[in-house]
Write a structure and sequence with these properties.
heterotrimer; A alpha+beta (218); B alpha+beta (259); C alpha+beta (289); A: alpha+beta; Glutamine Phosphoribosylpyrophosphate, subunit 1, domain 1; 29% helix; C: 289 residues; alpha+beta; 5-stranded antiparallel beta sheet; 7 helices; 26% strand; Proteasome_sua/b (chain C); cytoplasm (chain C); nucleus (chain C); Ntn_hydrolases_N (chain C); Proteasome subunit beta (chain C)
């Protein structure tokens, strides 16, 4: 059986941050084939079930395969009196088990994932990667974002961050990544999860950029 | 003694559309010692009347903790129950392993019912000879389920199964409307009173009565013998007070190996 | 494929891969024997196309060993199943107490994943486990252990003793002798006489009981200091044994020092203080640099 021993079509950084009452996840829509900017409209911020946002970097097909596993799980979740379905926290743990088991078979799903969502007042944001490493935190970033954007997110984070402030933080961080990471595109999506509003993933939109020589701050 | 042409295996329907082997398995549940359960909006209490299979033996346990949030009581073949209990414990631990959270009671009961059902459609297997009352508390609140050898499972506010359980059911039906708001103490008192209905001539004591509690902020645990003794003393009166309830089945004999 | 090559493959530091297909299919999930996850849950876990039923590794190696060599393709990267997440864990045993402590930083290379991931796990009123090394392996190990411990407690009707746990951890680690669990375990607790006891392990299950053991990235800094200051090794005149409060202060001191010199130790420390009264959890902050 052929296994993923290296990623093929890849997505770059995914960023996530909590705010007061919810979480927000951002990623661009580029699918790179090595250094070739191959696909311009790969959606890497997705929804799993009614409550969970999933953002994925790394191999795009593995990301899609993972989404199928999760859909399969959620489909099975039909029981006697239909108990509430899996929480974001439970799905995060489930994905960590899947990714750990796949790595233990030497058949990794080559992704770094951001898992976010709100359920019963529990605002959750977590990370899972191809080795099965997982944790939860107030901010999360994958790929180059973990070096370039994570410090910006950590600095900006407060308990009482509003949704609008969080959006600004993520857009600014995505802009910095667009300036510095060669595997990015100036076309991003932002997904928001709140208790009241459920999941809302934006259509891709373009960030304003300024390439004027000499005044670039980042 | 009931033998018909259509009961030699579990997969053959009688012309009346019945599966006799399954009904016989359900009879094993009816022959088992009585057990009952009831729930409020915060707690579930299950109680069982323990049997002494031999004069010199101890009382056979019939209430078991599955996980911190779940317990069962059994009526019927104890040996079959042990298998199901191990299955339930393993499933709960698996859920903890995979999702880091307690398994939903309804999910496990559905899986358990499927497991029982698979034994009603296979020529070479026999149905489980045990009925369970599953008590649990999860994120959707307190639950009390009954499962049976036929593969069916029902959600209850209160239920009693096993020998002479009709009298307990009569008691529970008479009072169930008050259970939702009842305190844990009241639930236990109701459980013991109902259990006493099933004891017949036998006096209910701390030795032959067993009680388990699970609920909000209350991990599944057995009530200590001292507590039961104290509550029985507070209840006063020896044998069943209300004897008008109809007994719908035979008396369980002391030699019966079923719990 | 010959055995020595396989063994080399599973060493944590292996830089590139030559993988024979199907070789590892048996190693998925918690290898718990008959007590392990089975039934519907296990089916859900086996996400792949093939069931996780394993031939023995040695017979599998001979079946289909078409080697896949890594290196071509648009983006070259070799997969390593191992990653070192750093951090320090330790345990100290006194006459009637035990302290188990670990920092809460989780790193990968020069990146701090999170500042708040404790390495200490409470098992029961009498013992706790701490682990450093690879977080994913460590988490999986503690999950397998909790599974086995719960089964034991339901079956035996009593909590597992520290001594039994020590043996269980060893056999669990050794089961994966040829694909080691990259976690460095230290157990601290009270033994059946109420005396503090510490067990330290290597990745494949070798262990010994001692009174003071450090694991993880701060080992080379802290172990000699504790040998000297807690066990009074090489002192010609032995001072009195440290009291509980003195020991707690010593733990704080050595973690602060490790935080100064080891980039993988920092942020905060979670400490389990185990006495006859049970387990008390204390935390204190370290520098976040």
């Amino acid at each position: 059986m052929q296994r993923t021993q290296q990623p093929i079509v890849t997505g770059t950084s995914v960023l996530g941050i909590k705010f007061d009452g919810g979480v927000m996840v951002a990623a661009d829509t580029l699918g790179s084939y090595g250094s070739l900017a191959r696909f311009r409209d790969l959606r890497r911020v997705r929804q799993a079930g009614e409550y969970t946002l999933l953002g994925g970097s790394g191999d795009y097909m593995d990301f899609e395969a993972m989404l199928e596993y999760v859909d399969e799980l959620l489909l099975e979740d039909t029981t006697l009196d239909a108990p509430p379905s899996y929480t974001p926290r439970e799905l995060h743990q489930y994905l960590a088990r899947i990714y750990y088991n796949k790595r233990s078979e030497f058949d990794p799903l080559w992704n770094q994932l951001v898992v976010g969502g709100v359920r019963d007042g529990d605002v959750f944001l977590g990370y899972v990667d191809l080795q099965g490493t997982h944790y939860e935190d107030e901010t999360v970033a994958t790929g180059y974002g973990s070096y370039i954007a994570r410090p910006l997110l950590r600095e900006a984070y407060r308990d009482d961050l509003t949704e609008a402030e969080a959006r600004k933080v993520l857009e600014d961080a995505m802009r910095v990544l667009f300036y510095r990471d060669a595997r990015t595109i100036n076309r991003i999506q932002i997904g928001v999860a709140t208790e009241a509003g459920g999941i809302d993933i934006s259509e891709p939109f373009e960030l304003e950029t300024d390439w004027t020589v000499g005044i670039r701050k980042h | 003694m009931f033998r018909t042409m259509f009961d030699s295996d579990v997969t053959t329907f009688s012309p009346m559309g019945r599966l006799h082997q399954i009904e016989y398995a359900q009879e094993a549940v009816k022959q088992g010692g009585a057990t009952l359960g009831l729930r409020s909006d915060e707690h579930v209490v299950i109680a069982g009347l323990l049997r002494q299979t031999k004069k010199l033996s101890g009382h056979q346990p019939k209430l078991f903790v599955i996980d911190d949030h779940m317990a069962v009581s059994i009526a019927g073949l104890t040996a079959d129950a042990r298998l199901l209990i191990k299955y339930m414990r393993t499933e709960c631990l698996n859920n903890k392993y995979v999702f880091d959270s307690p398994l939903q009671v309804a999910t496990l009961v559905a899986d358990l019912a499927d497991k029982a059902q698979s034994h009603t459609q296979d020529y070479s297997s026999r149905p489980y000879g045990v009925g369970l009352l599953v008590a649990g508390y999860d994120k959707s609140g307190p639950h009390l389920f009954e499962t049976s050898p036929s593969g069916s499972a029902y959600d209850f506010r209160a239920q009693a199964i096993g020998a002479r359980s009709q009298s307990a059911r009569t008691y529970l039906e008479r009072h169930y409307e008050t259970f939702a708001d009842a305190s844990l103490e009241e639930l236990i008192t109701h459980a013991l009173t109902a259990l006493r209905e099933t004891a017949g001539d036998t006096e209910l004591t701390a030795e032959n009565a067993s009680i388990m509690i699970v609920g909000k902020d209350t991990p599944a645990h057995e009530l200590a013998a001292d507590d039961i003794a104290a509550r029985l003393a507070a209840l006063g009166g020896g044998a069943a007070a209300e004897d008008d309830a109809a007994n719908d089945d035979d008396e369980g004999t002391n030699e019966n190996p079923n719990a | 494929m010959a055995f020595p090559m396989q063994r080399e493959l599973y060493l944590p530091t292996v830089p590139t891969l030559t993988v024979s297909s199907q070789m590892h299919s048996g190693l998925s999930g918690p290898s718990l024997g008959s007590h392990g996850p089975s039934g519907p849950m296990a089916a859900r876990l086996a996400t792949g196309k093939q069931a996780p039923v394993a031939p023995s590794r040695f017979s599998a190696a001979s079946s289909s060993s078409a080697a896949v060599t890594v290196g071509s393709g648009p983006k070259t990267a070799a997969f390593s199943p191992y990653v070192l997440n750093g951090g320090t864990a330790l345990a100290l045993a006194g006459k009637d107490f035990c302290i188990v402590a670990g920092d809460t930083r989780m790193s990968a290379g020069y990146e701090i994943h999170t500042r708040n991931k404790p390495k200490t796990y409470r098992i029961n009123d009498k013992c706790s486990i701490a682990m450093a090394g690879m977080q994913a392996d460590a988490t999986n190990l503690i999950k397998m252990l909790r599974f086995r411990i719960a089964m034991y407690e339901r079956k035996m009707g009593k909590p597992m003793s520290t001594q039994s746990l020590a043996q269980l951890v060893s056999t669990t680690l050794y089961r994966r002798r040829f694909f080691p669990i990259y976690a460095f375990v230290v157990i601290g607790g009270l033994d059946e006489d109420g005396v503090g006891s510490v067990y330290g392990y290597d990745a494949v299950g070798s262990f010994e009981r001692s009174t003071c053991c450090v694991q993880g990235s701060g080992t080379s800094l802290l172990q000699p200091v504790l040998d000297n200051q807690f066990d009074f090794k090489n002192h010609s005149i032995k001072p009195d044994e440290l009291t509980l409060d003195e020991s707690i202060d010593l733990v704080k001191d050595v973690f602060v020092s490790a935080g100064e010199r080891d980039i993988y130790t920092g942020d905060s420390v979670e400490m389990h203080i185990i006495t006859a009264d049970g387990v008390r959890v204390e935390t204190f902050d370290l520098k976040r640099d």
